[in-house]
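Hi P.,

Sorry for the delay on this. The queue was packed all week, but I finally got your sequence through. Input first:
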Amino acid sequence: MIEDREREKENLISLKRELKKEQTLLKSTLVSIYMKILKQGLDIREEGLRWVIKCLWQLEEPIPLSAFPAFCDEESSQFLLSMAQYDIELADYHSRLAITIYQYTTNLKI
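Then the structure:
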């Protein structure tokens, strides 16, 4: 019984290691794809390049100014970074507001 548990524990540890490696590989692949999209300036979504910046930030990836397309000067790159940050802050405010409204309406019912 104890040996079965130990084997099961070792299998789980091994599986965890494999999944961690796969996660690292997937993250690396995503970062590579997003960096290529950013460098090429492919703004295929409504948000333009901001969506790529936010995706990279969600992956905790720093974005150097050299990662931006050649047609973006430093000021334009900084502007895009700022706008992406404002988008994130705005989404956070919307989320907080929704929670506050829910709490307020819930308290009214009591």
